[in-house]
Amino acid sequence: MSEYVVTKIFPKNRKKNEQVIRLLEKENIRRDKNLEYTCGIFDEDNNLIATGSCFGNTLRCLAVASKHQGEGLMNLIVTHLVNYQFKRGIFHLFIYTKAGREDIFKTLGFYEIVTVDDHLVFLENRKNGFENYLNSLHTNVAFDLNQGKNSAIIMNANPFSLGHQYLVEEAAKKSDLVHLFVVSEDSSIFPFSIRKRLIEEGTAHLKNVVLHPTGPYMISNATFPSYFQKDETSVIEGHALLDIKIFQKIAERLAINCRYAGEEPFSLVTGIYNNVMNHELRKVGIEFIELKRKEVNAKIISASKIRQALKANDLKTVKDLVPETTFNYLVSEEALPIIEKIKMTSDVVHY
């Protein structure tokens, strides 16, 4: 093993990148489109025999040529990627792997979070990372969790609209307590800190709503490992199953027995997600309620429409679609960098 060296594979090196694609294909893995860094191990004839990549806080597209498996090459690749991540200041790391291959990652300091249908295993490099997150949720709650209807909503709110507000208000009317989870990952146009603040301001009149960050556990589509899935629908369904498995553990800890979501006639991703969620949650005794979307002037409210109106500088439409608290932010000087970013973005519609 000592004669092997892990080297960076540069994006412009077409020959080496073609070798990466071929090696991944032999292991039934598609090269992920979301990769920031790729490395490899080459034999004495300059043939690629092991590779791995990373994106954000995840390690992905890990593969070793079949005739070299068992030589410790995966250990070298993962160790190299972990060191690379640490050097750029990312210390909490995640790996997705096919079921049956997780043991090697466990020997390298990763710990299982959930397994999805004996197909996909989600791991992190913190022994009590997920447990600590679950424990932290209790610190936000000053209610008795063991009585009545405890509901949950998971919301990105990019930005917070009258539609989002309506969903929370309806859940609050029919629940003793609503756990409102705000997607923490900063992959949206509006950063987490702003989205969370606008949600807080837009729900301040509801006294039975508690906000929680999703942390790195209820993840976005941008970081989901599509390279294990055969087509786009499988990617979305697999992502939904993983998210729901994690949500079930959160629901057990917080005694959540109902989950609300808005109807999604325009978003393929969220539409498929809602269908999977409805099926999976009912199997474990959690009620799923999908509310018809709120309309203004006979048109459904969506965050995409708000971003489109901001891009077109149509503040009248924006004002019709958002709470006063959101509108006040959007016309403030603080929002100018985000508005400028929206105007510079070619496509602001949510897929």
TrEMBL record:
Record keywords: ATP-binding, Ligase, Nucleotide-binding
Pfam families, A to Z: Citrate_ly_lig
Gene Ontology MF terms: [citrate (pro-3S)-lyase] ligase activity
UniProt EC number: 6.2.1.22
Domain N-acetyltransferase intervals: 1-128
Catalytic function, reaction form: holo-[citrate lyase ACP] + acetate + ATP = acetyl-[citrate lyase ACP] + AMP + diphosphate
Keyword rRNA-binding recorded: no
SMART domains membership: Citrate_ly_lig
InterPro entries given in the database record: Acyl_CoA_acyltransferase (IPR016181), Citrate_lyase_ligase (IPR005216), Citrate_lyase_ligase_C (IPR013166), GNAT_dom (IPR000182), Rossmann-like_a/b/a_fold (IPR014729)
PROSITE patterns noted in UniProt: GNAT
PANTHER family in the record: [CITRATE [PRO-3S]-LYASE] LIGASE
Cited function: Acetylation of prosthetic group (2-(5''-phosphoribosyl)-3'-dephosphocoenzyme-A) of the gamma subunit of citrate lyase.
Protein name (record): [Citrate [pro-3S]-lyase] ligase
Protein species of origin: Candidatus Enterococcus myersii
Upper taxonomic lineage: Bacteria, Bacillati, Bacillota, Bacilli, Lactobacillales
Gene label: citC
